[in-house]
């Protein structure tokens, strides 16, 4: 999956799950500061990413994710395993 494909899927997930406008979801967007996610939302996002990749996300792998670009990188890592 390309970065753009992951970004498109992430935009859909964030819109459908958290009602975030897709135009706000850019690689530079910070999950907590710009998109107003909180720690509970981060757990929900991790669950959605598990569904997307078919792989279990370890909490330590997700704790350093701060931006949409970080999420894209994490999805690439999960899919490479």
TrEMBL record:
<keyword id="KW-0275">Fatty acid biosynthesis</keyword>
<feature type="domain" description="Carrier">
    <location>
        <begin position="4"/>
        <end position="79"/>
    </location>
</feature>
<feature type="modified residue" description="O-(pantetheine 4'-phosphoryl)serine">
    <location>
        <position position="39"/>
    </location>
</feature>
<dbReference type="InterPro" id="IPR036736">
    <property type="entry name" value="ACP-like_sf"/>
</dbReference>
<keyword id="KW-0597">Phosphoprotein</keyword>
<keyword id="KW-0443">Lipid metabolism</keyword>
<keyword id="KW-0596">Phosphopantetheine</keyword>
<dbReference type="GO" id="GO:0000036">
    <property type="term" value="F:acyl carrier activity"/>
</dbReference>
<keyword id="KW-0963">Cytoplasm</keyword>
<dbReference type="InterPro" id="IPR003231">
    <property type="entry name" value="ACP"/>
</dbReference>
<dbReference type="GO" id="GO:0005737">
    <property type="term" value="C:cytoplasm"/>
</dbReference>
<keyword id="KW-0444">Lipid biosynthesis</keyword>
<dbReference type="Pfam" id="PF00550">
    <property type="entry name" value="PP-binding"/>
</dbReference>
<comment type="pathway">
    <text>Lipid metabolism; fatty acid biosynthesis.</text>
</comment>
<comment type="function">
    <text>Carrier of the growing fatty acid chain in fatty acid biosynthesis.</text>
</comment>
<keyword id="KW-0276">Fatty acid metabolism</keyword>
<dbReference type="InterPro" id="IPR009081">
    <property type="entry name" value="PP-bd_ACP"/>
</dbReference>
<comment type="similarity">
    <text>Belongs to the acyl carrier protein (ACP) family.</text>
</comment>
<protein>
    <recommendedName>
        <fullName>Acyl carrier protein</fullName>
    </recommendedName>
</protein>
């Amino acid at each position: 999956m390309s970065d753009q494909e992951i970004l498109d899927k992430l935009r859909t997930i964030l819109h459908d799950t958290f009602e975030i406008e897709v135009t706000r979801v850019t690689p530079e967007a910070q999950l907590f500061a710009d998109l107003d996610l909180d720690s509970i939302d981060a757990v929900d996002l991790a669950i959605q990413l598990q569904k997307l990749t078919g792989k279990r996300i370890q909490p330590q792998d997700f704790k350093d994710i701060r931006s949409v670009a970080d999420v894209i990188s994490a999805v690439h890592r999960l899919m490479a395993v």
